[in-house]
Amino acid sequence: MLASNTILKVVPSSQRCGDDNSDPSLFFVEIPSLDFIQEMDQAADLIGKENGSKAALVTSKKSFYMTKVESSNSFIVVNPSSNSSSSSSSSSDENDAGNDNKRRKVCKASICPSFHYELTRKYLDVSELRRILSAGTYEGDAEECPSKSSLRPTKSSLCVLLQTSLTELEKGLSLVEAFEVDGKWTVISEELKNEAFEEILAAASANDMNLSRLEISSILKSVTGDISTEKDVVEHCLRNNSAAVSSDVFSMDVGKIATFKARKILSKRSTPYPVKEFMATWTAEMPHQTTSYVPDISLLKNLCLSEYDGKVSDDVLTYFPSSNLPLDVSSRFKRLFEVRECWNEDDIEPFLKDVVREDESVVQILLKNALLKEKGKWIAKPAS
């Protein structure tokens, strides 16, 4: 039984569905609001998937799962037409029918199938987007080959693969710092991104540039080494680590500079790093233009593990970046519990944020994939 405030929209269909009396050109879709009708009429696609998952209704801005709901009764659509009085007939029988007959309307009734489709909001799976883009990772022009290019999708193919709208896709591409190569999309390898970031900072330092007002043209002229031939990569890196001041002037994010420097320091160390020693090295590695900035260890939450070591009477840091963890949720939890048998919720949260969907919370994903040992502490689920 449908609720009294349910809104159903009649949608044309090219396939016959329902019993023999049903109209083959119609089916019903329950919509979230009357405002949604205009958006649906302007641009809406039905996208199915070969693996048998739910079909999705995708507009220009949003996407929805479609779930078929059966009903015990068929739906009837009635379309009123104009008044039925005919000017072509002049028989006495029609004249005797009276004025009431002239006011009657002729209605055409179409019987529709005894089901409708419910719409459930579908959110973009950013980790799946990252996985798809990683298949054709860009490692530099010298490493390019046709086989790698063939693995890179276009925006339109990504919308179909992910059953998502163009608006949602573009937001996701920004989140994963996607990179466009010849009209197709991918991500840049960590090695190439690090090289570009290092050269940007080196060029800015050598020319005593103001990090709050870096001109793209000046940076591109000043970078040296192999990365100097990768102008698009350098510009991409600068844009993703800065705030735009104008179309070609950017202010670099000092927090992102500090995180980049910390990653570089920690990745070179094979043994745990005492915090006091690390902080001294980290501060010294910061660009001379940031002397007033003091790096905050809270920036490292998804870069390393912190534990107390009695031998040095200090906390020690072990390099453990979330970017190196599996993108598949179950595989990620398996890896996390291989490293620690029990996790504090505050410690594990930074390593899960990039695989949590927009419609989920960290607690929800923990409840699905781990066991709550006690308040704020999580352990692995027993193998089934």
Automatic annotation (TrEMBL):
Chain intervals with Low complexity compositional bias: 79-92
Top-level taxon: Eukaryota
Gene Ontology biological process terms from the UniProt entry: DNA replication; maintenance of mitotic sister chromatid cohesion
Region (Disordered) residue spans: 79-101
GO terms under cellular component: chromatin; chromosome, centromeric region; Ctf18 RFC-like complex
Keywords: DNA replication
Family, per entry: Belongs to the DCC1 family.
Name assigned to this protein: Sister chromatid cohesion protein DCC1
Record organism: Triparma strigata
